[in-house]
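Honest question from a wet-lab person: if I give you the sequences of every part of a complex, can you actually get the arrangement of the whole thing, not just the pieces? Trying it with mine:
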Amino acid sequence: MMNPVISHPLGNFIREVIPFPEVSFLINSIISIIAICAVAIGTAPILIYMERKICAHIQCRLGPMRLGFHGTLQTIADVMKLLFKEVYAPKGADKFLFYLAPMISLTAPFLALTMIPFDHNLQVANLSVGIPFIIAVNGFGILGILIGGWASNNKYSLLGSLRSGAQMISYEISFALVLLFVVMVSGSANLMEITQSQSGTILDWWIIKIPVLGFIAFIMFFISSTAELNRAPFDIAEAEQELTGGYHTEYNGTAFAMFYLAEYINLVTTSSLATTCFLGGFLPPLIGIESVDLLMMKVPGFIWFAAKVVFMISAYMVVRWTFVRPRVDQLMDFEWKFLLPANLLLLALGATYIAVLG
Amino acid sequence: MLALIYFIILGVIAVGSALCVLLSRHPLYGALSLVVSMVSLAGIYGLLGSPFVGVVQIMVYAGAIMMLLTFVIMVLNGARDSKTPMFDKVSLFVFPAILLLAALLGFALISTPLAFNAETLRGSVALTSETLFNTNNKGPGYFLLFEVIGLLLLSAMIAAVLLAKKNLGSKETEEITEVH
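Yes, you can. This is the full assembly:
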């Protein structure tokens, strides 16, 4: 039976206090669920603020400045506005599916977050099939977008959702293949073991450890995950200028906030995945000089993890506000005619590397 | 004990959503209930000690195949199908067939001895890879068969493309490819 054990000291404490294993397991599960929700929902306002500031500075503006210190309260005001808006569905829309869609698209990033090891003992479920699970769960995000666009009873929404469905299904292939490369070189699909396989100095991270190939794989992961996230430059699903917002044209208030939240939690999840697979996860970036290394070892793992995730997120944001959006056919051509063959070649080269040097 | 509770919950969801597939009027609702059914089946596989099979179930059936189905339903506007009657003459033949199949399956299940231990792992990543790639004297090494099935699927796909593009190379298709 699949028996995820919560390895944090808190889990052990509850197991000691409560005699029945079933009850303590349930309590531990509820604590994990609350923790995951708190992390996911708590980071979203910070990310929105970050995105606005980065966007503003790239466009030579100041961004939010009025509310609070340098506009820090602006996102809270925005969230309040979104939550207190009237919720209504357009005429002729399928009400049930209309409200179900944002919830479906929220499940995917939450489920993926449970697999991420934030520290040595901070992981909700230590499954042996961590990476396949994340790839499998990503599909629900597409389902949510498809249903949302269809249920809105709006041509723009339907077009946007069909576009995004086609795009996400295509890019999911190269996303999965890059992760397969990581699984191949590290010899495990378990995210904790992938992290542990990179222990050592900074040169042992998968981005550097395999000469050139690791870096190419990282870039490919970055491209395909940007497309998976539906973020600019690959945001043809929303494409404000052509589709007036794509699949969430008709959404407002809380339902729209849920789509928005799903996008940002997905950003966190994907960045954590990149951190775990390529940048050494929660391991400190040791450089081989003993005095410096000892200092870095004292910092807890989840702080290193958070720092790397923030670095990845800002990379995604800078890319978002720097590049222009390609056309739909260019996007598809890029995936099927360049990225996928390149990925297969990368897999073959990785296998050769393992066979020759591993 | 906990596993039994999980199994009952997942089983009820799986059977209930499978009934919804049959009874729902709109094809999109049917597809969604099928997704729910697949996901709860994946949960049951996990309970049986085969998390890998469960994840593959979600990835292939609830993910890829159901996505294509929803795509087709949306593009073809399946809403008009919701007016077709639920039972017609064909049902007269379908029902006895289903009952016969259920009876056969039930008989087969009852007559086999069920020695079941929920703690053993059956479909983990390591076990699956060993079944596929272990080509020693002991291991079966099924990976060649696996590849051949992939070729079969590929040929089916090519046949479907050929059927859909009946007039390959004719004037009409050329115009379509140029317009984009």
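Two things worth pointing out. The interface with chain A takes residues 1-3, 28, 32, 35, 46-49, 51-52, 54-56, 58-59, 62-64, 66-67, 70-71, 74-75, 118-119, 124-126, 180 of chain B (CB under 8 Å). The mean pLDDT of chain B is 79.
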